[in-house]
Each structure stands twice: as C-alpha cells, then as structure tokens.
Amino acid sequence: MTLFRSAAMLVSLVLVPLTVTAAPPPEPTVEYSADSTMETEGGMTMKSRIYHTPTKQRMEMGGADGSVTIIRKDKKVVWQVMGDMYMEMPLDQSNAPDMGGFDIQEQTEVGEETVNGLKATKTKIIATKPDGSKFGGFFWTTKEGVTVKMDLLSKDGDKKMRMASELTNVKIEKQNPALFEVPAGATKNDMGAMMGQGGMPNMDEMMKNAGQERAKEKRSSRSNSGSKSQESETPAAEVNKMLKGLFGR
Q: Are 136 and 123 a contacting pair, CB within 8 Å?
C-alpha cells in the first residue's frame, strides 16, 4: 500500500463512513462548516475547508486553484471538481478498496474531553479484516455527532500508516445549498483523466496546491518547545507506541 493510497484510504474516512458490522461514530445531526487539518506520520499536512449536512458534504483543498469534492448521499453520487472540469462517480465506488471487509472488534467510550472549545466524547475503535489487516484509533465526537478530532492507524503486514485530523473554527449553522452542486458551466470529464489506479482519486492532483508542512518544520516546532522528550520521540516511535496501545503489539 503506497503512502498516497494509504492517505486516500484515510481521507475517505473523513468523507464516507466505514462499511462495517458495528456502528462507527454517529453521523452529525446538524449542518456545519469548519477548517480541517490532516497530518500523516511522514510529515505531510493537508488543509481543507469542509461543509456538512446530514445528506451532503463538501471538501475544498488548495484554495481557489485547488480541488473540490462533493458527496451527495441523497443522489448516491460523488463529484470531483477541478477548475472548470468535474468527474462523477457512484457513491458506492468512492471508498478505497482497502476498506472493504473491516469488522469492528472494539468500540469503547474513553471519556469526555474538550477539543478546540467543544465538549466531545473520546471513543476507541479497533477493526480487523480476515487477511490480518488492522485499523484502529480514537474519535472525539460532539453530542451533535460532529467528529472534531481523529487519531487513526492502519496496519497491513509490516506497513503502517498513521493519520491525525482535527477541526477548528467549527460553526453549526445552515449551509448554502449551492455549495453542494456542480458549478454552473463546469464540463464533465472522463474518469480516467482525473483518477489514479484502482479507482482512487489522483492524490497528487488533489494535493497539488494544498498546504503542506514537512517533518523538518515539526522538528523545529518541538525544538522551540524546549521538550527533550518530544525531540527524542520520532514519528516511527510514536506509531509503534500507538500500535502497542491499540493492538497489543
């Protein structure tokens, strides 16, 4: 599983719920907008603006020249908009193939915490596949069902992928219906022109103008904090610690 493919799988968690035998964190019952920051262990950071209703979702990446993903559960379709072009695909084909077949083995409420001024319930989830692949992490969810923070980890053999996501500037309010429509004048494009292999969105294209911060900046930040313990904890060490905590090894 490549870094971009793993990132795409984890990105799908933000936009499309898991198809599993037990319920993931509840779907939001309110409409809201927020700024999202997603980070992977390799030092890649993806910033986006999201808009959400119970049946419609929109994610903007890269500003005016970036990409827009619109999910319409009511129409069972996903639109990927780039500039004056857009691609359409069925909602049931928008998940990464790697997510199919996961069964939740554990779902436990850990406690109540405040995240960016919002009260949230922290929940631990562990899921597995018959082939031994594992997925687990923590979700912080408000009483309205808004997941304001995630810390997730996937393990496939010796390959590990960690992703953390957090919402800021959360505003619970009615959203403009026009946000969830393809822009007027946009031209429908062939799927192959905007997709990568395996039916996944072309992540290189999606993140072309997205804000990215590398591991060097993180090391600098840790250095400025003056915490030697933080400096000594490499991303790999953090992932191994999380693996042990989630999966017992």
A: no
- Fold for 3-247, please state it: outer membrane lipoprotein receptor (LolB), chain A (2.50.20)
- In angstroms, the CA 20 to CA 85 distance is 33
| Contact by Cβ (8 Å): 24, 126 | no
User: Which portions of the chain are predicted below pLDDT 50?
Assistant: 1-23, 95-99, 194, 196-203, 205-218, 227-233, 243, 249
Q: In 167-183, which positions are buried (b, 16+ CB within 10 angstroms) versus exposed (e)?
A: beebeeeebeeebbeee
195: which DSSP letter? Answer: B
Domain ranges of the chain: 3-247
Give the C-alpha separation, 165 to 39, whole Å: 6
Q: What is the pTM of this model?
A: 0.68
3-state DSSP percent of the chain in helix, strand and coil, to 5: 25, 40, 35
